[in-house]
Amino acid sequence: MYDTILLPTDGSDNAELASDRAIAVADTFGATLHVLYVVERTRDDPETKGIEEKVSEELNRGREVVEGVEKRAANGEVETTTTVEPGVPRSTIADYAEEHGIDLIVIGSTGADDPTDKLLGTVSKFVVNEAPADVLTVRPDESLSGPD
């Protein structure tokens, strides 16, 4: 049913929950798990100082996040492919899914940029509507966010 699963992650708490779900689904179906971290492109603005350093830090963070998921997946003997690349998260995720023949995308319903959105974050919403694959959204763990 699902041979290739994509887990877009930003390292947020909800993305970590999604990674657990993606690993479990990949293990169940014997699927390859693609782990994608998108480093958001910033405007090329001469007024912005230290942008290269920030991008470098974010690339390093992305590598740490995908390597962490890869290690957890290896414990369950799930084959993984990891990618860290610059781009606009929502369109990069949809493009990656199309280019790699992804069957299922497992994504946190909210991410690091919008933890207060109780339904779907902007990236998740775009992916649900535009990606060329089935999408499983993982709701945040209410115990992590505290009382309303």
TrEMBL record:
Domain annotation UspA: ranges: 1-139
* Descriptive protein name: Universal stress protein
Q: Record's family?
A: Belongs to the universal stress protein A family.
Known Gene3D superfamilies for this protein?
HUPs
Q: Which organism is it from?
A: Halalkalicoccus tibetensis
Q: Sorted alphabetically, which InterPro entries does this protein's record hold?
A: Rossmann-like_a/b/a_fold (IPR014729), Universal_stress_UspA (IPR006015), UspA (IPR006016)
